[in-house]
C-alpha cells in the first residue's frame, strides 16, 4: 500500500479519536480535539502530494480520499452544530455541496469511468473550512482572543467558496447531465 493511501486511512482512523476528544470532558479536551483535527487535515494535504510525487495515484485514493475528507469534516461540523456554535444551515450548505459533488463524480464515473479531480476553488474552500473549524475548536481555550469573530468570518468565506465551487463544479461538468 502506498504512503498516500496509508495517510488517507490514517485520516479515517483519526475520526474516532477526534470525536472522543470532543465528547469526553477533560482539561483542554477541545485543544486536543483541534490538534487531532489539524493532524488529520494535514494528511489530506500530504496524501495528494505524495501520490503525485511518487507516482502512486490510485483508484483507491481517488475514491477514498474525498470520502475520508467528508467524514472528517462532518465529524467536526455536527458536534459544533449540536453545541450551538455553528448554525445548522451552514452545516447543510457545506455537507449538501459534498453530496452534490459526489453525485456528479458518480455520474461521470458511470458515463465512461472518468474520475473528476478537485478544483482549486474546492481546495481553497477546504483550507478555509478546516481553518474555521480549528479556530472554533480553540475558542474555549483562547477566549481572551475573542476568536469567534475571526472564526465566523473565515467560516463565512468558506460558505461563500462552497457555493461558488459548487456552481463552478456543476458548470464545468454540465455535459454529464445532457440527456437526463
Give the key terms:
single chain, 180 residues, mainly alpha, 6 helices, globular
Topology:
Layout: H1 3-23, H2 29-53, H3 59-82, H4 88-110, H5 120-138, H6 147-172
Model description:
The relative contact order is 0.12. Helix content is 77%, strand content 0%. The chain has helices at residues 3-23, 29-53, 59-82, 88-110, 120-138, 147-172. The model has no long low-confidence stretch (mean pLDDT 88).
Helix fraction, binned, reads: over 70%
Q: Low-confidence segments, ≥5 residues, pLDDT <50?
A: none
User: What's the order of the H and E elements?
Assistant: HHHHHH
Distance between the termini: 39 Å
Number of strands: 0
Query: With helices defined by DSSP (H or I, 4 residues minimum), what is the helix count?
Result: 6
TL;DR of this structure?
This protein is mainly α and 180 residues long.
